Recover the amino acids of this structure.
């Protein structure tokens, strides 16, 4: 699927809900569209499904331009955020609805419905009405219904948000597994960065109608293009500063937290930048180790125990609060209590420089 | 139980007695063996028997039923269209006016509706030759104008609560707009349509004022028969007729209520 410079405004003089979006999704890919609430994710899906018409731009699926093609003729199916199951039909009839529109023989429809219910493990409840199902069961039915016609592209609008945490994590694996089995291209929208990163082979981060960055989860997480992406995809500590010069192949930045060395291609001295470092890349040290660069003395303020690790807030000498992750792995790493003094450090290649 | 609530319960009972005792007495005296409406002389079904042999009442019953059937069906069609337009098209010139005019008959004094329709029919007949005199057709048209408002209000409520994403899901699964309407929208608003039809039917069945204005000499409806015969003195036969009408209307209204409540 190919999207080129797509723009959609709901009001003539309002901010565009989708702003100059270009996107290419390969066949059989699991692509996630990630962004905060109201950034235009649903609008983009509705444009692709054909419920809204774009002001400008092109949507092409398998090379065919979708302009003017009504929703019921597009090779695309959507799984709605609220599932939109037909309340007056039972599970089997819901799943078979799309197939019945193609006027397939009854036997073929029934066989396919059974296979789909098998796939989403809902065969036993085929005769129930949607009103008699739990949230997770409804979600499975909605998925089966959207898969029934074997669309070229399946759109999923926040498929897991209506579920409780445990079920959500189970369904992540299941959805991924189903994606591998059916071989259909998935385009999933979510505002949960963990969900996007764990499920998708590629993702795009959206903000205010624009795509900020696109790439594999690892690439976008490790190399965020700007402050928004860095902050939205996981937690990040930012040190604002100016480039001071280069030294031994490293870029030196004068920041509020002191002089920092970062592995980065040269930048003109005086350029305003932010040094970004992920919490899990900060090392915790008791003694002041002067052999390494980038040492930040501070005091532990709060510790939030999360099981496999603890998240700490550390106040630096400059007064800035930073986040660090302390592993609770083997019990050998030093343990700090609130109020303890410590030093944080990071290697020059763990940090990233952000210019915007 | 404290004093205040005792007072409240007493007023409630008094209120209901005031409302329903006269109706109860109509029903009780329809089974009276005596011709006198004030003296109880034992149980009898004779007035129901007499009722079914009464030609005038039989004719009026047929007129009333025909009028009610036509009026309910016509009001259902037009009222549904009005509701659909009002709910689905949020912005068009004259929308507020249409909304107000659709619901105006709910509060319009019947005497004014009746009179204006009578004048309209007379003027129409002079101008176009139709309707030739007044009869079932004119009463039905008058009742349609009354029923539209009720149907529109009921269907509008249902459509406003309707989840549009269900229609979009059906479109997405390959059903064209007509099939979406027939397989998704219609079944889901059907209870409201049935309730609207039943209410329009009931309204038509018990309307006296508008029917009196728009009826012709050969098209007397049941309420008109009752009204004119009561002026000559109350007969137990009329009590029996009133009881039957009461039963029919109670069943219809209860049915409409049930339809609106389920799901
Ligand atoms: N039908 C509409 N008319 C006018 N404005 C709309 C309409 N639909 C969406 N918008 C606006 O477009 C913007 C994007 O909305 P959209 O529903 O695409 O957000 P989203 O990214 O899906 O958010 P969420 O995560 O909350 O679902 C919002 O500012 C919203 O107010
Ligand atoms: Mg949304």
């Amino acid at each position: 699927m190919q999207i080129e410079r797509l723009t959609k405004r709901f009001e003539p003089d309002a901010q565009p809900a989708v702003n100059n979006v270009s996107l290419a999704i390969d066949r059989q890919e699991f692509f996630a569209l990630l962004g905060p609430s109201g950034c235009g994710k649903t609008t983009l899906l509705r444009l692709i499904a054909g419920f809204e018409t774009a002001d400008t731009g092109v949507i092409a699926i398998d090379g065919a331009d979708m302009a003017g093609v009504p929703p019921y003729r597009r090779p695309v199916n959507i799984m709605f955020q609220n599932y939109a199951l037909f309340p007056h039909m039972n599970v089997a009839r819901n799943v078979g609805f799309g197939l019945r529109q193609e006027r397939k023989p009854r036997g073929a429809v029934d066989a396919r419905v059974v296979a789909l219910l098998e796939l989403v493990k809902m065969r036993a409840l085929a005769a129930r009405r949607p009103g008699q199902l739990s949230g997770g069961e409804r979600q499975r039915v909605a998925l089966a219904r959207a898969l029934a016609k074997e669309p070229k592209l399946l759109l999923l609008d926040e498929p897991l948000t209506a579920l409780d945490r445990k079920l959500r994590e189970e369904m992540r694996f299941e959805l991924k597994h189903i994606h591998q089995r059916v071989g259909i291209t998935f385009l999933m929208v979510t505002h949960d960065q963990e969900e996007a990163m764990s499920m998708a082979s590629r993702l795009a981060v959206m903000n205010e109608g624009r795509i900020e960055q696109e790439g594999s989860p690892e690439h976008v997480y490790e190399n965020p293009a700007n402050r928004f992406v860095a902050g939205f995809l996981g937690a990040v500590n930012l040190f604002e500063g100016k480039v001071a010069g280069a030294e031994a192949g490293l870029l030196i930045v004068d920041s509020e937290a002191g002089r920092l060395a970062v592995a980065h291609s040269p930048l003109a001295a005086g350029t305003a930048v932010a040094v970004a470092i992920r919490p899990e890349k900060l090392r915790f040290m008791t003694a002041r180790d002067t052999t390494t660069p980038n040492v930040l003395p501070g005091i532990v303020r709060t510790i939030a125990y999360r099981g496999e690790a603890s998240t700490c807030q550390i106040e630096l000498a400059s007064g800035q609060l930073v986040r660090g992750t302390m592993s609770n792995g083997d019990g050998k790493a030093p343990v700090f209590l609130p109020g303890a003094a410590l030093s944080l450090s990071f290697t020059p290649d763990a940090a990233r420089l952000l210019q915007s | 139980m404290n004093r205040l609530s005792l007072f409240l319960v007493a007023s409630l009972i008094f209120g209901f007695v005031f409302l329903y005792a006269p109706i109860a007495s109509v029903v009780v005296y329809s089974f009276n063996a005596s011709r006198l409406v004030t003296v109880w002389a034992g149980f009898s079904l004779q007035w129901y028997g007499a009722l079914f042999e009464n030609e005038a009442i039989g004719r009026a019953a047929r007129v009333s039923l025909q009028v009610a059937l036509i009026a309910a069906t016509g009001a259902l069609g037009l009222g549904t269209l009005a509701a659909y337009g009002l709910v689905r098209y949020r912005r068009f010139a004259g929308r507020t006016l249409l909304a107000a005019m659709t619901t105006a008959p709910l509060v319009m004094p019947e005497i004014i509706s009746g009179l204006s329709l009578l004048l309209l029919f007379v003027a129409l007949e002079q101008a176009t030759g139709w309707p030739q005199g007044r009869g079932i057709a004119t009463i039905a048209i008058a009742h349609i104008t009354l029923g539209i408002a009720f149907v529109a209000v009921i269907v509008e409520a249902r459509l406003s609560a309707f989840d549009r994403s269900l229609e979009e899901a059906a479109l997405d699964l390959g059903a064209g707009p007509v099939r979406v309407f027939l397989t998704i929208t219609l079944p889901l608003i059907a209870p409201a349509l049935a309730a609207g039809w039943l209410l329009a039917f009931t309204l038509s069945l018990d309307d006296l004022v508008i029917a009196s204005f728009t009826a012709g000499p050969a098209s007397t409806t049941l309420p008109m028969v009752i009204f004119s015969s009561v002026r000559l003195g109350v007969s137990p036969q009329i009590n029996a007729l009133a009881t039957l009408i009461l039963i029919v209307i109670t069943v219809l209204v209860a049915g409409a209520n049930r339809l609106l409540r389920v799901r």
Remarks:
- The pocket of magnesium ion (ligand 2) is lined by residues A 41-42, 81, 157 (CB under 6 Å).
- The domain at 54-253 of chain B is CATH 1.10.3720.10 (MetI-like fold).
- The radius of gyration of chain B is 23 Å.
- Chain B touches chain A through 17 residues (CB under 8 Å).
